[in-house]
Amino acid sequence: MCRWLAYSGRSVPLEAVLFQPEHSLIEQSLNSRLGHTTTNGDGFGVGWYGRHSELPFRYRSLHPAWSDTNLREAARAVRAPLFVAHVRAATGTPTQETNCHPFRFGRWLFVHNGMIRQYSHMRRELMMAVAPHLFRWIEGSTDSEVMFFLALTFGLERDPRGALEQMAGLIEEVGRRYDVEEPLNMTVCVTDGEQVVAVRYSSEGASRSLFHSTSFRQLRALYPEDPRILAAGDDAFLVLSEPLIDVQGVWEEIPEATILMAKGSDIQSHRFVPRPPASGLAVVRSA
Fold it and tell me: 222 FRET partner, CA 20 to 30 A, in 78, 94, 149, 230?
């Protein structure tokens, strides 16, 4: 499968999270300890928000993250208060740049780990459920991008929780019609640069791993001289597929069927319940 993370807090260099920790995301791309696959070398991507643009920036590549020298250089140079990153292990769709996460629409970024089972059988019906004015923005062939555009169709900009629940509900409804057992397995993250929304859910109740940081104050107490932790600030927050360091009490596993919504220091957790899409589709702005 894949590995991903999202960071929010004070502006820090991307390398402080992507490269420097002992079990960084880039190290996970070569040696994942909790993933379904050990290596995640079918491309990568980083998306971040800067002060001088309304839209998020992206850097994506179909090459393995561990061997990309340009990524290392960019991660040294770029500082951001919020960013997402993803390393990919393909599940039945081609290794190409347009299939690399994060996917983008307007201010929104989306990353996913997991799969829609028997996606090739369900693909046409799921794609036809995407709102017509959004359809032309789909660039790749992966199930993850279709999940994102379904969430946009169901009102992601207005109600992220409701949109993601309807996206999951539709996939399970279509799966039942095609006799697909347990069609959906996902950990996903969406952000608009202001909030980070993460979900851990699967039809079978055995989702991929997902954690969040508990307290950067605690980290600062443990590592008072670490400039990366000092720079991030006490209200910094990470949600991620695997912990970056092996320190007890710093990470908390997100339970099954849970949605986490973080905005600054306000972090809320709710039960995630897929439901059929509302009869009327939300109107989404074009980008």
Answer: 78
Q: Is the pLDDT of residue 220 over 90?
A: no
Per the CB < 8 A criterion, the answer to whether 47 and 102 are in contact is yes
Residues 243 and 250 sit within 8 Å (Cβ to Cβ) = yes
| Stretch (H or E) spanning 69 | helix 69-77
Residue 223 — left, alpha, or beta (φ > 0 → left; ψ -120 to 50 → alpha)? beta
User: Tell me, what DSSP letter sits at residue 9?
Assistant: E
The b/e string for 68-86 (b: 16+ C-beta within 10 A; e otherwise) is beebbebbeebbbbbbbbb
∠ CA 254-230-242, rounded to 5° = 25
3-state helix, strand, coil in the chain (%, to 5): 30, 30, 45
Residues 6+ apart with CB under 8 A from 128: none
Q: Tell which residue, 251, 241, 272, 254, has the closest CA to residue 1.
A: 241
Task: Report d(CA 190, CA 209) in Å as an integer.
Answer: 17
Phi, psi torsion values for 213, nearest 5 degrees: -70, 150
Could you give phi then psi for residue 65, rounded to 5 degrees?
-65, -35
Give the contacts of 224 (CB within 8 A, at least 6 positions apart).
Answer: none
pLDDT for 282: 43
The residue behind tokens 């169901």 is 154
How confident is the model at residue 222, as a pLDDT? 60
Distance CA 136, CA 62 (A): 22
Rounded CA separation 96/42 (Å): 8
The per-residue pLDDT for 20 is: 92
Mean pLDDT (whole number) for 67-88: 96
Beta bridge partners of 239: 6, 212
Torsion, Cα of 184, 66, 81, 109 (10° steps): -30
Q: State what percent of residues in the chain have pLDDT above 70.
A: 93
Radius of gyration over alpha carbons of the chain, in Å? 18
